[in-house]
Design goal:
Immunoglobulin-like; 7% helix; seven-stranded antiparallel beta sheet; mainly beta; elongated; 2 domains
């Protein structure tokens, strides 16, 4: 565990002396466990009452101190921490998106009342680097249905060549889907940014993709399945057309896959 050096500690009922911390490797959008050691340097006992009372949490800030994510995961204490008492707490960290340099600020919060930093006890601020979610850019494709020459040609012409073995993500297409040449790069870019599931919007000649409706934005509130998803290793779609969107875990980009359908026929 990394020890924390000397830092200002106020005099009064609510004060924290930060003792040490242990951080995992941080990858964009991934949840991992961290540990923080601290001492009650005030005169009031810290008590946790289920989801209220004093709890450890954190903020993600940029290099100027602006909040990127304000409300981190909360974790309470297993027992009251009396003045002078020390405690070591394990908490879950969800790394921000996209990857880059951030400032991680641990603080205590009296839920629904105040953060300790607001009453004069400085947080523990750490400069951290968040890595891309995927360590390698290796995308595989599974084509569902009979062989299709145009689909095969479109996949062979991708900007980032596809792989068979050692993939970090697998895209599920149907025969007749014709991805744009930059499709593989855009899919891998979105995974690197932190998304576990990436779907492309579909253009079809007969516009008969009901019941699916278009979504908007890079992380939309998407009420229908993502179409033709790419999934990180370990995730599998329930069916090849799509899968339910994961809140905070999915992205969609527009107009990058064309799908040939026989006139008057609906796929779904």
């Amino acid at each position: 565990m990394e020890r924390v050096g000397e830092h200002p500690v106020p005099v009064g009922p609510l004060a924290v002396r930060w003792l040490g911390y242990e951080l995992p490797e941080l990858r964009a959008g991934v949840v991992a466990a961290a540990r923080v050691a601290l001492r009650n340097a005030g005169t009031a006992t810290w008590r946790t009452r289920r989801e209220s009372g004093v709890q450890l949490s954190y903020h993600w800030l940029d290099d100027r101190g602006n909040a990127i994510v304000w409300d981190g995961v909360r974790v309470g204490f297993e027992r009251p921490v009396a003045p002078g008492g020390e405690v070591e707490v394990e908490t879950l960290l969800r790394a921000p998106q996209p990857p880059g340099r951030y400032r991680l600020a641990f603080d205590l919060v009296e839920e629904l009342r105040f953060w300790f930093a607001e009453v004069g006890s400085p947080p523990l601020e750490l400069d951290v680097v968040v890595a891309p979610r995927i360590a390698e850019r290796r995308l595989a494709v599974v084509v569902h249905g009979s062989e299709d020459a145009e689909t095969a040609a479109a996949l062979a012409g991708q900007e980032e060549p596809l792989v068979v073995d050692g993939a970090v993500a697998t895209a599920h297409l149907v025969a007749g889907a014709i991805p744009e040449p930059d499709w593989s790069r855009r899919v891998l870019d979105a995974h690197a940014e932190g998304f576990a599931a990436v779907g492309g919007s579909i253009e079809t000649r007969d516009r008969s993709l009901r019941p699916w409706a278009p979504g908007g934005g890079r992380n939309p509130t998407f009420p229908h399945p993502l179409l033709l998803p790419s999934l990180l290793a370990g995730l599998e779609p329930a069916e090849h057309q799509g899968l339910p969107a994961y809140e905070g875990e999915s992205a969609i980009f527009d107009g990058r896959i064309r799908l040939r359908l026989p006139r008057g026929r609906q796929r779904g």
